[in-house]
């Protein structure tokens, strides 16, 4: 062969070698970040606001100010990725510093953080070093490159990934080579498929229907869907969209308008647009909503086929934001309520699970587990009685629009008085309408929901899950809409302590209203005693000073008997609504001797039978409950497959009526466990992995664990600690499990609450 041929071969090989060195952010780096970093660095609770779920977030960098600050006296400037700024220069003006670029002859901050983490490896599957604070309330230093040496001296184990098994050798070298190459970031460009693009055009056409009526409907729909991850039935799998207000009309590139709240004045002409969500899907913010031809026809029928008219489109002032019932009063109440009922799980998720990633401002007002159901529109007086609606609408305004520090308790008093006046009118109006079964809505499988809270986060599932809970909520349209506006539309995660306090105090009133409505279903003579059981100790003072008195005279038409009317109601609810109960639960509510799902393979049936022994017991009789975290995941292997179960610790409280002092109201000896087949938390606190054949021994060890040493031996045998050599294989398998079992709802889980057991 000729010399020219060999020279050509050498040049080709050399070219390939150079090509191999050219790393791509999307191909080579983002997958590493998704597997090892996004579990902590996503959403508002990301340390130092460093969001690694996209190229835009990585190049934006970090910020010293945390988003979560429960004592700030001034509202903070919003820093929402893909909305509040565009491009690195704009983010630098907002105080963000690069973690990718070299500075003053110092290596990139990310490179040094990774080096620090690699220089201090953890002892395999051992507890973390004493004194290492991994709590979500810790104060993060967020050093800039010039401050790193001081940070490293003070925080030997502060490298990345933080307090967990690190990157593999290949991952580490890949990221370091990319940083050495200047950390080039190409942003992910998503173009809707032809099928999606066609449906986007149809929905944008509906949302931007011309005329006053179309403007009002578009605004209402936008305010109720802006938080959703929208996806199309029959569309390209895995693509999600978000509705925004854009300066540009359909057919042109989206130019989103950033306002603090979605019902703030946009300040210019705009169109409602659907734009692709381009960052990594994380479970904690992934609140999905399906769009389809059927849904489009349903919305068209509900909102546009009726004969109602609009005299004038309302403005965006504080009074309109505070009272959506007044703002949207031209749209028939039945239409608005029915739209929300059709999609009740979505709406309850928006305020129970929420998009803010750390929700204790709302979650400390709710019990750790309860059931929710809804009042039928045909029996909701706000929907059916025009005179009653006109009387009560002015009383349904909500606080939080003004955040003067000195006005917190004045605002609270004003709105508490309005709310209590509303409750009194409501009680009078329903006095001649005794509750019966037909007043409970049963239109689809969204009608029955279960809520589980884990301290500062909560989850919602269709169906009635777990043992019969202490409290139940019966929500009507004013309760559902107020909760949505108070906790979602009008809530500002960047707001000050006055705004957050007003939100929390008013949600306390909403919860109380849902409880009082439920009590109407029970015998009149039983109501006060049940209510007193929900408001023990200091809660009695709150009953006297803050809430309206209960209706103890209007009878209920339900035949529940005199003994334990609440439990009798729950049993009848389960029996009457089996057709729409999406979660029959033989594990926690065992009937007879078969405490498992009969459609499962035999190894899982035996495992579930054993796990059922942990339910229906309080911690006083099963002491290990007090050593378990709030959301423990159990990975059970059988053959070449595995199933995931959630062990949820339900904490008992004497009451949930106060903003502070939750630990003083906690009754740990009354805590219980719920066993759920699947993943029922975005924030797992710990993971056990074991073969199905070990489940009886695992359950027996839990039953026999009396002291911390007993539990630690159990962790050492089956637990996956943060320092486990294969931690990330097990943790990322949770996402794979979601992708296999419920791909629409799948997303990367958060590990920031993973405990040091």
From TrEMBL:
Show which residues constitute the signal peptide.
1-20
The residues covered by the Cytochrome c domain are 24-183
Q: Name one GO molecular function term.
A: metal ion binding
* Keywords, comma-separated and alphabetical: Heme, Iron, Isomerase, Metal-binding, Signal
Top-rank lineage group of the source organism: Bacteria
Supply the InterPro entries for this chain.
Cyt_c-like_dom (IPR009056), Fatty_acid_cis-trans_isomerase (IPR010706)
Protein name from the UniProt record: Peptidylprolyl isomerase
Annotated organism of origin: Stutzerimonas stutzeri (Pseudomonas stutzeri)
Write the lineage as a comma-separated list: Bacteria, Pseudomonadati, Pseudomonadota, Gammaproteobacteria, Pseudomonadales
